Amino acid sequence: MSTQRRPDRRRERTQKQLGDALLALLQERNYDDIRIEDICHRADLGRATFYLHYKYKDLLLFAVLKRIIRDDHVQHLEQADPNERSKSLAQGVFDHVAHYRALYRSLAQSVQSGSIDRQIQDFLKEITLAELQRMIEDLNLSISDDLLEFVVVYLATALHGVMMWAANLDGDIDTDLLTKRYHAFTDSGFRALIALGTSR
Length: 200
Prior knowledge:
Largest sheet: none
Strand content: under 5%
Radius of gyration: 19 Å
Structural class: mainly alpha
Shape: elongated
Distance between the termini: 54 Å
Order of helices and strands: HHHHHHHHH
CATH class of the largest domain: Mainly Alpha
CATH topology of the largest domain: Tetracycline Repressor, domain 2
CATH architecture of the largest domain: Orthogonal Bundle
Helix content: over 70%
Number of domains: 2
């Protein structure tokens, strides 16, 4: 057992080193200006080590984004009031953006921003779907797959749009106000749409 776990821990540790190095560099310069050599130098690892884990820079970026969004999301929901989880999802995303603001500003200026945005949206869809399925189960609702997909795409796309808009605002991000506004628009609409879908 122990001989099987050690390589996994080593792999995770190396990937975290590379990811943390990329995050640090993104605080200093635009994503497009960062080379694999820069990441390896900051992580104190060789290029061969990088290529053992990632074929190219974008794959490292996508892994980093997924890790930090997921970690913040899980931590936020663990601390949330169970009755406020629908708000907590948005609050967690906006708090995350406020914390990693320089990162998202840098990514917005990348020529790869379209591909990066799709990766972020895909993960937002994943966590939105999980929360909606939990809510639907708690409310004992039965809705069609196409309606659920519509709601997931709508909510995740809106969440992504607001988070990227907020990242590029001047001044501080008022995450509480953003959450209230997002929730005011989406919660009532979601409930109305669910009522429409279940009444058919």
